[in-house]
Amino acid sequence: MVNKNDKVMKVKLNDIIDALEFVNMGQDTEAYLNPKNGEIIYINEYTDISEDECEEIYDEYIGLPTKFYIDEYNMMEEFIETIEDERLYNQLYIAINGSGAFRRFKDTCINYDIIDDWYKFRDEKYKELAIEWCEDNNIKYI
């Protein structure tokens, strides 16, 4: 059995970010990092995995944050707080209320030509989350 504290390599931060984005895409998928080789595996209800393999994963791999921890809705709220234009600020807050909030938020960003600003902001938040997770788990990254 591998001790989770025995980190032997650096992982690519972009791999961690990609895994966080994939997990957050809405499927009930979990991601795990093998700290010995940097491999990331994904598990969901459709994954064909034996009980022994499952036990090995939980013993040797480190779970990445789930979509519930990532909270992209909060990212949208934080992004809105950076908007100085009062009308746009109000339009974005209206957009994120109720069902369909993500679609309406994105549409509003497109209509006001700030979608690239949103993606840049969101990417930075994913990077911060990945760095925090690596540091919390003593994972060296590049």
Description:
This protein is mainly α. It folds into two domains: 1-66, no CATH class; 71-122, no CATH class. The protein has seven helices and five strands. The strands form two sheets. Strands 3-2-4 form a three-stranded antiparallel beta sheet, sandwiched between helices. It has a two-stranded parallel ribbon with strand order 1-5. Helix 5 packs antiparallel against helix 6. The radius of gyration is 18 Å and the shape is elongated.
Strand content: 5-15%
Taking all Cα atoms into account, the compactness measure Rg is: 18 Å
Helix- and strand-based class? mainly alpha
Per DSSP, the total helix count is 7
- For the biggest β-sheet, the strand order reads 3-2-4
Roughly how many Å apart are the termini?
A: 26 Å
Q: Regions with pLDDT < 50 over 5+ consecutive residues?
A: none
Order of helices and strands: EHEEHEHHHHHE
Question: How much is the average pLDDT?
Answer: 91
Shape: elongated
Task: Name the helicity range.
Answer: 40-55%
Total strand segments: 5
How many domains? The number is: 2
Question: TL;DR of this structure?
Answer:
The chain has helices at 13-23, 51-60, 67-70, 72-80, 86-95, 101-111, 115-136; strands at residues 10-11, 30-33, 40-43, 62-63, 140-141.
Keywords:
3-stranded antiparallel sheet, mainly alpha, 7 helices, single chain, 2 domains, two-stranded parallel sheet, elongated, 142 residues
